[in-house]
Amino acid sequence: MDDQNLSNGVSRRTLLRSAAVAITATAASRSGLLSKAAEAQTGAFATLTQRPPLAERRFTSPIIEETIQCVSRQIADPELALIFSNCLPNTLDTTVYPGTQDGRPDTFVITGDIDAMWLRDSSAQVWPYLPFCKKDPRLSSLIEGVIRRQTRCILIDPYANAFLRTASSKPLSWAVHDDTTMKPGVGERKWEIDSLCYTIRLAHGYWQATGNTAPFDAEWLKASRAILHTFRQQQRKHGHGPYHFQRAAEQPTDTLPLSGYGNPARPVGLIYSGFRPSDDACIFPLFVPANLFAVTSLRQLAVMAAKLGNNTVLANECAALADEVAAALDQYGQIETREHGRIWAYEVDGYGNTLRMDDANAPGLLSLDYLECVTPAGRALYERSRAFALSSDNPYFFRGTAANGIGGPHIGLGYIWPMSITLRAFTSTNNQETLQCLRWLRNTTAGTHFMHESFWKDDPAKFTRPWFAWANTLFGELILKLAAEKPSLLRATFQRT
């Protein structure tokens, strides 16, 4: 089947790669044991679990533990079951720091191996737990704390992508000398449209799942207005606006050209983005998947502003901006290709220049359906775009002996991100394709039984980031979805090839 068809000058990229090298040998040494253990029964795998001891877990939810046991019994393949039981609770086990602020829930969420809270990652990390909140008030309170913390972060600086625990926390080493307007409490200030979109997605999803309106107070409405203002400001109809960012970096993707304002683009109604969800700089600043995400998010925010805040002015302004961006996307965001027909571009500049590619991170072309950015009228356009993303016409789609999948410039050529394989399964309507994704995910953990940021296409033991909670809980969410919608696929067993 075709794939369809540090003040010390150390960069974040270098730091994470060094950490990965330190554990790669250990992971590789496990692979022999693992291939033999794969022949064993489920009971034998209980001794291989990598979850922290119960007393060392950051947070424990009885309903999540019960769900892990229940779903694991539905998974015929013992290794796949073990990976699921490790991955689904990984955010709760290792990355959440619940507390209170002014008597209300407050939760700081680290990414895993970086002691900072990314708006995008923190939203995605707790997303799979929303359906369980009604059965676990403590879990609901924890996620309410995430929403409240994100609200305060946005009010500190809506242009920032990552935040520190406190205003006096030690800064991230690679961001110390960034030429931008850094404020106390900001970890990194890369302007990414999707950072704000993810906070809306989480807030809307939490409200829908729980009915709890407590976090949507006057402070939240103030942050919502800041989001709308920032999106409008970055349409750049009246100049480039206040945001600029430059960094002395080995990788050109870590900084923005032209005094930190990015490459030029025509103000056509789309929102400019400095960086992608990979934290890599945009080539053309009109980043199409993020603008599509913004349309969805603005429409969700409009509903919430009207129903929760009784703020029809804000609701109408959000809806109007969503309509404007959607119209601009239809006019400027699509391209004709010989191989796939009309598809979404990845980036454009409004002058006619376009970038044809997809990246593993979400939002991207592949993940649009997962993020609810596909309308019924746009279904065929999405399917063609998805086919492009999963083909050799995408320069960041890699085929290897270990797996096929999408990577990106953040790590480099030949490195597949498990996240892309997970999102491929999420967006597939083909059972055989989904099973192939499960097989690849099962067989590429290098014996760690966790997802990684990326792995070499021909050797999963060469991977980056051994502790990447977003990828872990995303995989857990996939298994929950299959258990609910296609349980027969979980009765398959897989062998290493």
Describe this structure in words.
- With 497 residues, the chain is mainly alpha-helical.
- The protein has one domain: Glycosyltransferase.
- The strands form 6 sheets. The protein has a 3-stranded antiparallel beta sheet. Strands 6-9-10 form a 3-stranded antiparallel beta sheet. Strands 13-14-15 form a 3-stranded antiparallel beta sheet.
- β7 and β8 form a beta hairpin.
- The longest helix is centred in the first third of the chain and has 26 residues.
- The N terminus is likely disordered.
Summarize this structure briefly.
The protein is built from 15 helices and 15 strands.
Count of individual helical segments = 15
Rg from alpha-carbon coordinates? 22 Å
Q: Characterize the overall form.
A: globular
First-last Cα distance: 16 Å
Mean pLDDT: 91
The percent range for strand residues is 5-15%
CATH topology: Glycosyltransferase
**What's the total count of β strands?**
15
Order of helices and strands: HHHHHEEEHHEEHHEHHEEEEHEEEHHEEH
Determine the fraction of residues in helical runs and give it as a percent range.
Answer: 40-55%
Which stretches are poorly predicted, pLDDT < 50 over at least 5 residues?
A: 1-10, 18-48
- The secondary-structure class comes to mainly alpha
CATH-derived architecture: Alpha/alpha barrel
Strand order of the largest sheet: 3-4-5
Largest sheet: 3 strands, antiparallel
CATH class: Mainly Alpha
Counting structural domains, the number is: 1
